[in-house]
Amino acid sequence: MTTEGRVHVGSRTGADVPADGAAPSDTRARDLRQLITYVLVGGSGVLLDMGAFLLLHNVAGLHEQVANVLSTSLGITNNFVLNALFTFGRRDRLLTRYLRFYAVGLTGVALTFVLLAVFSRGLGIDPNLVKAGSLPVVLVFQFALNRKWSFA
């Protein structure tokens, strides 16, 4: 019986092992490596996203929502390429994976859009602070979705 990537094998301990045959400790180590790599890749995307946002909003004078969509799209694309190469090591079905990854990224755009509207427009908080504060929340949420859907 397979349950979430684990197969029950008839051992004396009755323990479940991953479907790929790796020991649970190997799976945990792989999961931790993926999370660390994802965070590092995400950090590069955050820097690119935030840098582009600051330039587009503060220098080019674009509305914060337009600057957010453009900067986030740039960060999403950067992160997809790096995650496909380094985090998940998946180079098959790239268009499908990119579209899924981008869809997950759009959830971050939508969440940030709402946060900007509420905290910047509604409460008068600096949009740069709102954007920066939204990034860690979005990163954690998207890791789970990308791991289970985009790169599954």
Structure explained in plain terms:
With 152 residues, the chain is mainly alpha-helical. The protein is 74% helix and 5% strand. The protein has 4 helices and 3 strands. The chain has helices spanning 24-59, 64-87, 94-122, 127-150, and strands spanning 2-3, 6-8, 16-18. It has a 3-stranded antiparallel β-sheet with strand order 1-2-3, with no helix packed on it. Helix 1 runs antiparallel to helix 2 (64-87), helix 1 packs antiparallel against helix 4 and helix 3 (94-122) runs antiparallel to helix 4 (127-150). It is elongated, with a radius of gyration of 19 Å. The chain starts with a strand and ends with a helix. The model is unreliable at 1-17 (pLDDT under 50).
